[in-house]
Amino acid sequence: MKSCSCIILLVSLLLTVSAQVLKKAYATVPQLVESAGYPVEKHYAHTSDGYILQVYRIPHGKGTNQMDGEKKAIVLFHGLIGGCDNFIIMGPRKSLAYYLADAGYDVWLANLRGNFYTSHRTLTRKDPAFWKYSFDEHGKYDAPAIIDKILEVTGLSRVLYIGHSMGFTTLLTMLAQRPEYNDKLIAGVGLAPAAYLNNIQRFVHFVTNNIKLHKILHELDVGAIKIPRKYLKALSKYCTSEKNLDHCLNFVYSIVGDDYGQHDLNMSNVMIMRIQPASTQQILHYAKLAETGVLTSWEDGFEGRVKPYNLSNIRTPVSLWYGENDKLTATPEILRLARELNETGALHSVRPVPQWKKFNHLDFVYAKDVGKILNTPLVAHVKELFDQFDKRQVK
């Protein structure tokens, strides 16, 4: 009888965990935030070229009202095939947005054009023109529109910027193209910042020179990489089975770096089901960076002119955080970016994620212990940046 009770208890626990995972896989951002016990607001930023970007706000921590005091705003920008939910998906005791809100900050979650939280004034997702963009446009239009919306709503004159991977590429392209936005930022923090990708140059060279993938995509007029939900479900089912789990992890880790110790098995479904669309041009633009070894604008396309972004326009103090086992944005490439930013006077600091040598590209969002390993020291660093550089003038 005792044995039977234990089995029933175990089954009940597994069903509860399964239900929670399923909820996270399909829940909206407000549902995720509210179920965690935090306040949430939805705002819309409109770009000058017609895109409408949902921006979510967590104005204060759980059970407090920090808005009654002095406001300090932080905006979080996601990476490729991601969305603003990257910063809340692991929950209150792990995800960065909750850590910052509990530390008293006014937290804003940005979405860059193309993911499911964005639309266009006149174009639909079926229109090829909807997908004609890369991080050129993220920096030129999206980030400025989002920052202006935050400053309009809060009445502040500056905000602190944190970007993961492509989210930091966006900061670089924004300040290079629109240097006036230096005056609207307190500081910038790059988490696994994507700028130089020489470490994947061989792979890119193979698929573009041998397979001619970029020409195939152009001839087929493939404007975006969009995985229908039914295929995401099938992939999720395949990769979470005991038989195939190692195959899927090995494939992902061949790209981002292996870290079996920080993989949360319960989050595998969530990670897959919340994959966002990306424009083909975005991906080919990163391929151009890898192929040329230059942080270049898109110009005439993948085979077009190489025109480096003008990093000397960056005056915002910048901190770079990297994972020592990150294969995608590898340590030598981070240090190269750091040297260039140091030469222009923009670099504040560059550091590996402490405590965990196996930290990889996805760990910045999905590590099992991301709260303890990354977000605790990161929040302390954010405080240092505000203390040193925040000389806000409230409108």
UniProtKB/TrEMBL annotation:
InterPro entries xrefs: AB_hydrolase_fold, AB_hydrolase_lipase, Lipase_euk
Signal sequence extent: 1-19
Occurrences of domain Partial AB-hydrolase lipase (ranges): 29-90
Protein name: Lipase
UniProt family annotation: Belongs to the AB hydrolase superfamily. Lipase family.
Gene3D superfamilies named in the record: alpha/beta hydrolase
Pfam families tied to this protein: Abhydro_lipase
Record flagged with keyword Nucleus: no
UniProt keyword list: Hydrolase, Lipid degradation, Lipid metabolism, Signal
